[in-house]
């Protein structure tokens, strides 16, 4: 299937991208392809959100979010699944095979998907281990499958995706244990699917970014050194402070011409959790622990990391803080901010040029650091 945008839009971003320094952190700024006007939304992103901001559907979404504030965890989880379980990408990749397998974690058989290039190579290839997002309660392999395929098509790597157990039915640390068990399985079995166990990049989006970087943290603490690089898309890294971060709006540059729309999107996306905190979904009594809020942990000795997020992401404050703390801890970090976008854009492969660009950035970072 053809992309819904021209190659020229990808080129335009590359030609106009630039680096700024904020609070001692270098940030690569990716412009909206068609404009340099500050404080506005990317037109494709706005179009994708317009139906849930206006009209009858918008009214239903607002009613749903209002109902979620009653702290019914099961009902909130069901509502999040309705919002997050759709497939937004279109198939644009060719030449990638998919194989299904399971990894045993005690009594639990954890499903995994293995993506390999049809262009066979005699050399072992880097391994791109991906963990999907969804607030720890939603999402699934189908949502991000085209993302994994695109990284394989671009780099020739092997990709593994894990279908970990979700909260609240499976409280912490069930999902994390699944993800870490699969990491250890990849390290032990990578050569069976032409992967190099010594060149693993772990990646994930949102809650998956949390699980990815916590797996890297566990790997560091245990001295196993399986993870050589991290690629985090708008990761949740401070569950304990998320509600506080989401109340701040002073960091966002907002044009008066789109103030209503942008603030509505920030309210909508941050309100998707209602007043139920991530720690409550996970069933942890203390959500300040580093394996739930890695921003609050020791980051020294972590593997190199690329962090990518949108200008209007409700997790932007904690992602900026995580990138800065990584840098101050002596970790190699690359930070990429996409103008005019909010949370969850990377699964729109083939629909928006920024989704494709973000995966190109991730693939290049992986090849440079594993």
Automatic annotation (TrEMBL):
Residues 129-346 form the Alpha/beta hydrolase fold-3 domain. Pfam families: Abhydrolase_3. The keyword Nucleotide-binding does not apply. It comes from the Bacteria. Coiled coil: none annotated. Keywords: Hydrolase. InterPro entries: AB_hydrolase_3 (IPR013094), AB_hydrolase_fold (IPR029058), GDXG_lipolytic_enzyme (IPR050300), Lipase_GDXG_put_SER_AS (IPR033140). The active site is at residue 206. Belongs to the 'GDXG' lipolytic enzyme family. This is Alpha/beta hydrolase fold-3 domain-containing protein.
């Amino acid at each position: 299937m053809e992309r819904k945008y021209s190659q020229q839009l990808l080129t335009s971003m590359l030609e106009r991208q630039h680096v700024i320094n904020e609070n001692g952190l270098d940030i690569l700024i990716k412009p909206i392809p068609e404009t340099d006007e500050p404080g506005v939304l990317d037109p494709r992103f706005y179009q994708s959100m317009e139906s849930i901001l206006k009209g009858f559907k918008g009214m239903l979404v607002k009613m749903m979010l209002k109902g979620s504030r009653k702290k019914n965890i099961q009902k909130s989880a069901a509502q999040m699944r309705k919002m997050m379980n759709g497939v937004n990408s279109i198939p644009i990749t060719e030449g990638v095979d998919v194989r299904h397998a399971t990894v045993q974690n005690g009594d639990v058989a954890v499903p995994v998907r293995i993506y390999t290039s049809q262009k066979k190579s005699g050399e072992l290839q880097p391994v791109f281990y991906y963990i999907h997002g969804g607030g720890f309660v939603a999402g699934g392999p189908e949502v991000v499958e085209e993302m994994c395929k695109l990284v394989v098509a671009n780099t020739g790597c092997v990709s593994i995706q894990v279908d970990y157990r979700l909260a609240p039915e499976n409280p912490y640390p069930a999902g994390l244990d699944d993800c870490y068990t699969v990491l250890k399985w990849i390290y032990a079995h990578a050569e069976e699917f032409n992967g190099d166990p010594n060149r693993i990049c772990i990646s994930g989006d949102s809650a998956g970014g949390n699980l990815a970087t916590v797996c890297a943290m566990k790997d560091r603490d245990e001295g196993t050194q399986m993870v050589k690089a991290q690629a985090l898309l708008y990761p949740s890294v401070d569950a304990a402070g998320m509600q506080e971060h989401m109340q701040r709006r002073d960091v966002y540059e907002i044009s008066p011409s789109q103030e209503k729309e942008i603030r509505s999107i920030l309210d909508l996306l941050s309100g998707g959790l209602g007043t139920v905190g991530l720690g409550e979904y996970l069933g942890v009594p203390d959500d300040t622990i580093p394996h739930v809020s890695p921003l609050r942990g020791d980051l020294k000795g972590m593997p190199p990391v690329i962090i990518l997020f949108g200008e209007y992401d409700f997790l932007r404050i904690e992602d900026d803080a995580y990138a800065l703390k990584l840098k101050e801890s002596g970790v190699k970090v690359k930070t990429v901010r996409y103008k005019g976008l909010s949370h969850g854009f990377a699964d729109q492969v083939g629909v928006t040029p920024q989704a494709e660009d973000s995966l190109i950035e991730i693939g290049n970072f992986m090849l440079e650091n594993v």
